[in-house]
Design a protein that fits this description.
With about 170 residues, the chain is an all-beta fold. The protein is built from no helices and 15 strands. It is globular.
Length: about 170
């Protein structure tokens, strides 16, 4: 499934949550940690989307809640998970909105993963790049254009939008 080109500056503010009509997958150490075609995505001006996967489509037996809690003015209160596979522990690998605002109630209990903390994340079979930092957790796909918040100056030559010579602007 091909996703149309989207400019991150056309995404709304405040953030919104919408059904994502496509496939999402997360892999760590050869394990498929999460896989769904029943996800949601959150869109916010200047950010790549964050994707949310239902708990039934996650390997919850490998995830442990931890004490980290954050608050987003638009989405609500989030709680975090650590991942344990064998001797490997990845802290704060995913989050969920345990006490969401009314606009985000539909993703209560769904998990979103930091692409920077796992081996691979896919949107419709396309391997994503991680949004810089460990705060926003967006997934960068080739269809995104526009200057992304929190993206450092890096050469992302494979982030070409469609078959043109236009590239995602990175700073």
């Amino acid at each position: 499934m091909l996703i149309e080109q989207e400019n991150v500056w056309d995404f709304p503010r405040p953030a919104i949550c919408e059904v994502f009509a496509g496939s999402l997958e997360v892999e760590v150490s050869g394990h498929v940690l999460a896989k769904t075609e029943n996800g949601f995505r959150s869109l916010e001006t200047s950010h790549p989307p964050s994707y949310y996967i239902p708990p039934t489509d996650n390997s919850m037996d490998l995830l442990r809640s931890n004490q980290r809690v954050t608050l987003c003015e638009w989405k609500g209160q989030a709680s975090y998970f650590d991942l344990k596979i064998g001797d490997k522990i990845i802290a704060n690998v995913a989050w969920t909105y345990t006490n969401p605002t009314p606009a985000f109630e539909k993703i209560k209990g769904y998990l979103s993963f930091y692409a920077s903390k796992v081996d691979m994340c896919y949107v419709n079979g396309e391997k994503v790049l991680a949004q810089d930092g460990d705060f926003y957790g967006g997934w960068i796909t080739k269809n995104l254009v526009g200057h992304l918040k929190e993206l450092k100056a890096v050469s992302y030559t494979h982030l070409r939008a469609h078959e043109t010579d236009s590239y995602l602007v990175c700073r």
